[in-house]
Amino acid sequence: VQLVESGGGLVQAGGSLRLSCAASGLIFRINALAWYRQAPGKERERVAAISSGEQTFYADSVKGRFTISRDNDKKVVYLQMSDLKPEDTAMYLCAASDSGSYYPEGWFRYWGQGTQVTISS
Fold first, then answer.
1. Is beta strand 45-50 parallel, antiparallel or unpaired with respect to 56-58?
2. pLDDT digits (tens, 9 = 90+) for 5-22
3. Residue 55 in 3-state DSSP?
4. Least buried of 7, 35, 40, 52, by fewest C-beta within 10 Å?
5. In 4-75, which residue ranges form alpha helices assigned H by DSSP?
6. CA 93 from centroid of its chain's CA atoms
7. E runs forming strands in the chain
């Protein structure tokens, strides 16, 4: 299984970015997918997840600003991020679960290398 993230970069506060994660080696349409982020000195945080049935989860810190979506034909999961804030600065990682549900988190055992998002104030 391989997950490859792209789309990170440096943007000003209030700006937008769209992250992509291309998957291979998975059936994909039956897998729940998620975006996590990790900032230096902080615990890894799940920011968004999407089930195989396209139910979604968002962390309170990103609700209303981030949107997760998936394209099963292309085997890509996206994270549209808007109204970005300096506290969104982190490495963003894509993850895939063995389950179609985004719970439990422990079943997310496939991980990408991450893409850096930096928000300047």
1. antiparallel
2. 999 999 999 999 999 999
3. coil
4. 40
5. none
6. 6
7. 2-6, 9-12, 17-24, 33-38, 45-50, 56-58, 66-71, 76-81, 90-97, 108-111, 115-120
User: Is the N-terminal amide bond of 104 cis, ω within 30° of 0?
Assistant: yes
Residue pLDDT, tens place only, 50-106: 999 999 999 999 999 999 999 999 999 999 999 999 999 999 999 999 999 999 989
Three-point CA angle 90, 118, 64, nearest 5°: 75
Q: In what order do the strands lie in the sheet with 76-81?
A: 2-6, 17-24, 76-81, 66-71
Local structure of 105: helix, strand or coil: helix
Note whether 19 and 8 are within 8 A (CB). yes
Tokens coding 120: 């300047």
Whether 92 contacts 35, CB under 8 Å: yes
Whose tokens are 């549900």? That residue is 101
